[in-house]
Amino acid sequence: xxxxxxxxxxxxxxxxxxxxxxxxxxxxxxxxxxxxxxxxxxxxxxxxxxxxxxxxxxxxxxxxxxxxxxxxxxxxxxxxxxxxxxxxxxxxxxxxxxxxxxxxxxxxxxxxxxxxxxxxxxxxxxxxxxxxxxxxxxxxxxxxxxxxxxxxxxxxxxxxxxxxxxxxxxxxxxxxxxxxxxxxxxxxxxxxxxxxxxxxxxxxxxxxxxx
DNA sequence: AACAACCTCAACCGCATCAGA
DNA sequence: GTCTGATGCGGTTGAGGTTGT
Length: 211
Description:
Elements: H1 7-12, E1 17-18, E2 27-28, H2 33-46, H3 51-57, H4 64-75, H5 86-99, H6 103-108, H7 115-136, H8 146-167, H9 172-176, H10 191-210
Antiparallel strand pairs: 1-2
The structure holds a DNA duplex (21 and 21 nucleotides).
């Protein structure tokens, strides 16, 4: 159900929720247009740091964490909303195979996309595709709820990542810099994509070395 | 039309890590 | 070295929408 951002939908979600268990009774739930505006204004003046202070300065009865999340996933400039293109999907699949559930890393390679968006896209669209492939390759499974199905896919992926990590001596960096052929089938790949992947791996490798 | 099952995605939660005192 | 608050991340939840019966 990929769709363009609509203010109408946003307004419909404006239901204030209060948390009985939280000590300070912060506002929770969907953000209102007014809250968005206040948050954006304060960030424009003070910058996107010290979220607790930002929340207070904006006069928002929200915790800093909530403000950060709203900014990172929604209000930040250059956020791309709506359909994920075929190229982007392809990239997500490849990066996920390479990096596992490291959504922020994957998002970092997709300009304008957030980790949350990619994570959601993976859980709702791509995990299904993988499931279908599994079925095609012979493994049969009975009908079941989408959530448990989703969880199992995530668990499976995590197990695979763990296995890969342990087989590489448990070191993440060595996993990333392992021979590309272990991760991709490049037989149909354009030279441009190959070049991009090489640059990507070099960049990550040099970053790891730097740290 | 009415209901149930399923899907999507914004938001929350808990934990790990970082940075400064 | 350790304590504490801030930040970032991945997993999970749940409201609302869509689709199937």
